[in-house]
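Known limitations

Files may contain more than one protein. Parsers should not assume a single record per file. Below, a two-record file is shown to illustrate correct handling: read the sequence, read the token line, then continue until end of file.
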Amino acid sequence: MTQTRVEKDSLGELDVPVEAYYGVHTCRSLMNFDVAGERLPIEIVHGMVRLKWACARANHVLGLMDDKKKDAIAAACQKVLAGGFEDQFPIDVFHAGSGTSSNMNTNEVLANIANEELGGTRGDRSLIHPNDDVNKGQSTNNIFPSGIRVACVYLVDDLVPALQHLIETLETKADEFKDIIKSGRTHLQDAVPETLGQGFAAWANSLRKDIRRIEASRDRLLEIGAGGNAIGTGVNTKASYRPEIAKQLSEISGKSFRPAENGIEITQFLTDMADMSSSLRMTAMDIGKTCNDLRLLASGPNTGLAEVVLPAVEPGSSIMPGKINPSICEAANMACIQVMGNDHAVQLAAAAGQLELNTHMPVTGYNLVKSFRILERCARMLADKCIVGIEANRERCYHYFETSGGLGTILNPILGYDKVAALVKESLKTKKTAREIVVEKGIMTGEDFDKLVKNCTGPNLE
């Protein structure tokens, strides 16, 4: 049998595993909440731990905590952030809407680690108390959402390099394919010419915009409500406490956190988090669109477009020998759909606040962290297992280009719309290319037509 120690709270006594760093509040939460079957993401826990560290330092600066307690709490925070205590944070995702269970779980773990730092034992509250010391000057209502904000700021540091890697991989292919002329398509119908490289460059540029949106959203999340205490008024704290927390957190993290412009507003509204989720959703939309385009361009190979060849990563069928599917693009598509679904959950949760508090914060943080994780891995998978190995089918690209009904459009400035329309009809009827027709009719030489085509694709062809 598991050995236990007895701990007491306002509801009475409860057995706690003797080896656990968490305490009675965590045990009660484990008895009550088991819906998601998943723990709250450790990134949010670490966000709260960084805040506890900053709060201890702020309390010390303001003369509210002595050196011994401040140093013990700081040491505990650093130990948790270094790893190895993940199993001490077992709270289910779906628990009290403000995150009370997770905040208290964090308080208890840090308090017991700090107690051991001072020579005490787990469960002994006489040296470091989870509420009076670790949680000093704090409320779950402000610490938990601030923890989500801190987590997201750190997660941006992981996501942006992954997106940049995908951009660079696309740009490499854009350069490789810059001289391959193909037919553009609108409404899935023939349109004016472009180069294959221009298409890859466009996909890369969409992601550059996504990074800018993510970074703008991150800036709003650098504003934290820690120290607002319950509804954001800062009850039971000094006026200088909140800016001091932001200062200390910035020194700990190396990031420019700042106190809330309005403590009451930031406690009630999760809109800044919804804004970040929206930026992640738009990134997923752009990656998904790119994958859809690649699947179309690689379709076939005999009955589709087959303008590009995607690298084979696995046999595509259990019944059709030799079939190869765009599996990486399909996996990325599903990942992007999941991110878009996560965003919908965040939007619903952010809109569900009442009066002085939003009580849907755990589900908001959970879906944000999940989207960050998915997008980071998705971007690297797509770059390394698909984009880098794409080959162009030059002959097919040129065939579609020279037989495209949209090719005649480049003659509009020379012949006018009506005459070009007649030429296009003739091309479709005779199966002759636009080039062949204009040369036969003496409208221009083949060399002049080729030069016109080259100019119409823009400078990226050079």
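...continuing to the second record:
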Amino acid sequence: MINFKGPGVSPVMDLVVPIHGQIEMNRIFFETLIRNTRASFRLIIIDNASPDGSADYFEAKRGGGFPVDVIHNPTNQCYPVSINQGVRAGMAPVIGFLNNDILVGPGWDTPLLDALMQEGYPVVSPGGLEHFPDKNLEEIFFQRWRYINKRRWSERPQENLSEKIRRMYGNFDEIAQKIQIKYQGVRYPGIMGHCHLLKRETFEKIGGLDPRIQSADWDLFLSVEKMKREGLFEKSPIILGGSYVHHFIRLTDATVKRVPPVCDHPPHLKLEEKWEKREIQELWPFKDQVPEAKKSLSKKIYKKYIRGRTGLYYWRVAMEKLVGDQV
């Protein structure tokens, strides 16, 4: 088991987090990150012209027992450019690409680092609402969060976010721990766009993120998987059930006008403009997401059933019961 933490220990991970405002979410994200991360890390914040005090908030966290670097961009840069910028600012052997709208479970990083450093996987991700080890629970959890997240539970922004998490999980750390224990050892090909780790040598081998592709997680997975089939990597990117991270999914307030990214690289491309549909359909592990994929009638009916059942029942049930029950 990897355990790189203690006085004088160089960071084993550079965690790169692009931000553009959302100060209330940044506070919750940071508090959970420092509470639940076990290995030493350097937090590299790419502040893309935040309109609030988010940059100052992270600046004030310097000297708290782990390095925090804040890189200030005068304009809102796109995601792949921000990530590449953050990676160049660090030197740790492991790089993490993290969204700021996530909550990490207790010890989330330990199984991911073990898979990277000891088992040789090129890219590893935690499980979560979008891709869960149990597909029945995945649909229930996703619809439960959809029901809770679209409602306003408090007029105070930070209380509203915290209340959403409380109504979803009760005690987030306890439920995340139960999920991680229950699905420890479960793994399957894939990637989570909001949180994944990779070796620095993997990042260098693929030449960094393509700045033209905003769907950077798709592009990263496809690139590594294609190179694996060409013999350049031994294993596929995987998702581990023993690590759990909650993603807010749609956090942005619709009433707040977002500043579009300002980039000086070649124009952004759709994924299908870089990759042939045939390649995506062959390489992407989640076949219901590939271009022109169609859900079966039975799946459509099941989805509607779970959505209705959630509004009547599932959103009220304690998560301990849902996690423990065989659905």
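Parsers that stop after the first record will miss the second one. For reference, the second record is described as follows. The chain is about 40% helix and 15% strand.
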